[in-house]
Each structure stands twice: as C-alpha cells, then as structure tokens.
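User: Quick sanity check before I run a bigger batch. Here is a single chain. Can you write out its predicted 3D structure?
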Amino acid sequence: MRAAKYHPNAPLLTQLGEALALHYPKTRAAIPEAIVVAPSHPRLLSKRGLNPARLIASPLAVSLEVPLIEPFRRSPVRLPQAQLSRQYRRRSARHSIRCIYELPEIVLIVDDVMTSGSTLKTLAELAMAHGAKIVHAAVVCDASNGKVL
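Assistant: Done. Predicted structure follows.
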C-alpha cells in the first residue's frame, strides 16, 4: 500500500479497487446511491498527480453501477494527515475539510488507508450535515491494526 500511495502506481491502486469491488457486499441494504471519494491534500495531489482513493473507488462505482462523486475539499493550508500525530489528526481533519454540495441519502465513502479514523469520521459527519442519512465507508488498508481489505 505504501508503494502504491507514495510512489504513484495507478494500475496497482486500480487493482486494489477491483479487489474491493469483489469483496463489497451486493445486498440491497449495502448499495449506495453514490460513492464519495475521500479528498487528497492539494499538495499531495499536485505532487502525485492522482488521488489514490479515486483510483480505488472507480472500479467499485462501475461494479455497483452508481456515480462517483467528489464533494469534499481539503484546505491547502493544513498539513497532510500522514504528517500529524494521532492526537492532532482529528482536530486537523475537522477543520481542514469542507463539503461543497448536497449529497444523496445513502453514500459510500472510499479511502485508501485508515490510520486513526479521523478523516472517515469527519467525512461521515460532513456527509450527514449535507443530506446523507446513511453513510457506509470502505478502505483497502486499516493501518490501525495492519489489515488489508
């Protein structure tokens, strides 16, 4: 995951998204109205030329036949979450991400890595504040316990 994220490897990220699509439950209750991509920090997006979460989310959106949307924006002023200690991640995420439009009632937020859960929690709160009633989340790597998929 580290290689795919920090040394842009679009094919590997897409393969991770395809694996996620295979493992994602296709039950009626789990199918979202849209897949929401976790935003990259603007500096990292510029440096990498890609958002890892977007590449992972794309095959899932195709598999579920739902739109892929990017309503969240990160402030370029704040540091990327990976450069912050756990205690500052939550505060940073809460103050550095905004939602720019209303969301459908059921969304699935896709991110590449979850370390502390701060970003996903913030995105879920923002989604609920902007119209979502049910928010699901999916990541390919849970760094808090070392699990992949």
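The two ends are 11 Å apart (CA to CA).

User: Great, the batch can go ahead then.
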